[in-house]
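Structure in, sequence out. Go:
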């Protein structure tokens, strides 16, 4: 998932996608331990997607806090 696609998602969609990716990462790690994982780069891709989503969520929270402090 690209950052542009991530920014287009709503807050609820971001949270759902984050939960899905965390479950997927857990499954990938389990496969790696049992030596059933064919492509180890999938773990890195999942971690980066999670980081992208968390970054967008943090930026949105910071933006909301900034606007609320300007109103006061």
């Amino acid at each position: 998932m690209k950052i542009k696609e991530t920014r287009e998602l709503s807050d609820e969609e971001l949270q759902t996608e984050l939960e899905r990716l965390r479950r997927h990462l857990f499954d990938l790690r389990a496969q790696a331990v049992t030596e059933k994982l064919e492509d180890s780069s999938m773990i890195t891709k999942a971690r980066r997607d999670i980081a992208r989503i968390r970054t967008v969520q943090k930026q949105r929270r910071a933006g909301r806090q900034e606007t609320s402090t300007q109103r006061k």
